[in-house]
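Deliverable D4.2, example record:
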Amino acid sequence: MSLTIGVDIGGTKIAGGIVGPDGAMLARSRKATQRDAREVVATIVDVVRDLVDSAAREGLGEVEAVGLGAPGFVDETRSIVRFAPNIDWSEEPLADAVAAACGLPTIVENDANAAAWGEFRFGAGRDAHDLVAVTVGTGIGGGIVLGDRLVRGAFGMAAEFGHLVRVPDGRLCGCGKRGCWEQYASGNALLR
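Output generated by the structure prediction step:
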């Protein structure tokens, strides 16, 4: 069976799973997110290796590729995290780092884009041609599917709803702007 590993990189946790061709989750791994950029990459690699070992141990099949859902601005090549407001990443070559450490082809997608595409393919939007998803966690993200295609924008950074300014001269955001929506309605904002 053709297997892939999907990893959701969040502000508090890194959660991964082995996914079958039909979108079914076959195994899971979860670890706390570290604050240091290098430690975050090492934790992602640990999650991927745990899952590869699990696939072999359980006789599930061979893992063929890794997909990473990363918070922040992911470049159009789906390999570099340009900037992550809630993790210390700037121009982070994430796909190459994970691929080199794990020996598997790896791509990076914005986490909210990945969630939108997952809903479109396997979830609530599977019978639709268009979909808008808003994710709320440590920050706020978004993903758009129009005409059966994920919209990434000219630079791979469309649908960053959390960084729309909602309060002029408001709270300072991790992106450097003031008054972003995620400063008022995200998980971090609710805790604050």
